[in-house]
């Protein structure tokens, strides 16, 4: 897998001919795969499954596992009870998730907080987040682990870390009719590749996954990032900041630390975030700390004192005041609230 990533640069720098144009019939599949071959991937033409056109209507859970690397890729369609419990059942399966809601609006619960998941939209979720859907059977989802494709190591290919995959800012990417058609087509090609077991199956699915991430990132940027000359560098600075916060929020609580890492002044960094209609950097840091505190209080048996030190606070009263200021309740009151998730154990 790693060798493939190095040998074959990402073939999806632009809209791939055939993959994202027009409607599709079961006879179009060879043309689609030829478009990949023409961009550097050596592969035989695959003949279509006779039932290709009906794939989107079938309930399925497809899995690919590379026994050598431990890489895993999964595809879910109409899967009842599709969810993720990071602190208990799924703590050893570190899957990134791309969820598509092609149906009616519904509620998605992420780390205990409820959000509206609009119709015809996409949502990305990190491996350390717990989530559930009001109507999971209507969700189409892809999951993959770092061993299959590391979005950090390959950030130059997909440019999504700290933006599309983000702990504190959940992006609901709206899809117009054309985008929905493209995703239906792409999901059908995914299914065909899952069903075709040969020596290049991993490589074909990796190409498709990268294409999916790049396309979603592009859609998200249209919806959330202002255009204009010179905006790319500023946008990447924001992504780098978010990535640094994810790595250091437990030990570094001040904007000045992150500004120094990015060779910016705190004021310049704050102005940059304002330009992109983002929360102030200080608020992003605080939100990440609060979110982690909530997760630990809700899902684990760790004592409040232990959580205090784990999150980089020197004393319990200071942490309690910080938490109450940001949530309206003390850590103990939050932990004892009714309706605590079943994923957590009994409060301490």
Instruction: Summarize the amount of helix as a percent range.
Output: 40-55%
Order of neighbouring strands in the sheet with most strands: 1-2-9-4-7-10
Number of strands: 10
Strand content: 5-15%
Unreliable residue stretches: 1-57, 344-348
**What pattern of helices and strands is seen along the backbone?**
HHEEEEEEEEEHEHHHHHHHHH
> End-to-end span in angstroms?
45 Å
What report would you give on this structure?
- 40% of the residues lie in helices and 14% in strands.
- The protein is of the alpha+beta class.
- It has 2 domains: 2-224, no CATH class; 237-348, Orthogonal Bundle (Arc Repressor Mutant, subunit A).
- Strand 1 (60-65) and strand 2 form a beta hairpin.
- Helix 4 packs antiparallel against helix 5 and helix 6 packs parallel to helix 9.
- Residues 1-57 and 344-348 have low confidence and may be disordered.
Describe the secondary structure blueprint for this structure:
Elements: H1 2-7, H2 29-37, E1 60-65, E2 72-77, E3 83-84, E4 95-101, E5 106-110, E6 113-117, E7 121-125, E8 131-133, E9 140-145, H3 155-158, E10 172-174, H4 177-195, H5 201-224, H6 231-248, H7 255-261, H8 266-275, H9 281-299, H10 304-310, H11 316-327, H12 331-335
Antiparallel strand pairs: 1-2, 2-9, 3-8, 4-7, 4-9, 5-6, 5-8, 7-10
Helix pairs in contact: 4-5, 6-9
């Amino acid at each position: 897998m790693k060798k493939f990533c190095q040998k074959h640069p990402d073939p999806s720098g632009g809209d791939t001919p055939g993959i994202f144009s027009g409607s599709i019939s079961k006879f179009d599949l060879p043309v689609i795969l030829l478009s990949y071959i023409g961009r550097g991937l050596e592969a035989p033409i695959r003949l279509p499954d006779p039932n290709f056109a009906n794939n989107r209507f079938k309930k399925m859970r497809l899995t690919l596992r590379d026994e050598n690397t431990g890489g895993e890729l999964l595809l879910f369609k109409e899967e009842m009870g599709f969810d993720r419990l990071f602190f208990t059942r799924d703590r050893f399966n570190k899957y990134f998730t791309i969820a598509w809601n092609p149906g009616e609006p519904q509620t998605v619960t992420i780390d205990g907080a409820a959000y509206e998941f609009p119709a015809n939209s996409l949502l990305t979720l990190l491996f350390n987040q717990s989530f559930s859907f009001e109507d999971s059977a209507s969700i189409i989802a892809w999951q993959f682990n770092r061993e299959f494709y590391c979005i950090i190591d390959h950030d130059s290919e997909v440019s999504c870390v700290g933006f599309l995959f983000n702990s504190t800012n959940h992006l609901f990417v709206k899809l117009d009719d054309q985008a929905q058609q493209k995703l239906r087509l792409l999901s059908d090609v995914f299914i065909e590749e899952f069903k075709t077991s040969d020596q290049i199956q991993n490589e074909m699915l990796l190409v498709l996954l990268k294409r999916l991430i790049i396309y979603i990132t592009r859609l998200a940027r249209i919806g959330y990032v202002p255009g204009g000359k010179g905006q790319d560098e500023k946008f990447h600075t924001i992504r780098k900041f978010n990535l640094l916060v994810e790595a250091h929020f437990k030990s570094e609580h001040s904007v000045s630390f992150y500004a120094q890492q990015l060779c910016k002044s705190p004021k310049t960094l704050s102005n940059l975030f304002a330009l992109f209609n983002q929360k102030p950097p200080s608020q992003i840091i605080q939100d990440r700390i609060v979110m982690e505190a909530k997760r630990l209080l809700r899902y684990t048996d760790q004592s409040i004192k232990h959580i205090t030190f784990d999150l980089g606070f020197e004393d319990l009263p200071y942490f309690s005041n910080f938490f109450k200021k940001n949530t309206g309740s003390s850590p103990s009151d939050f932990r004892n609230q009714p309706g605590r998730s079943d994923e957590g154990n009994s409060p301490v």
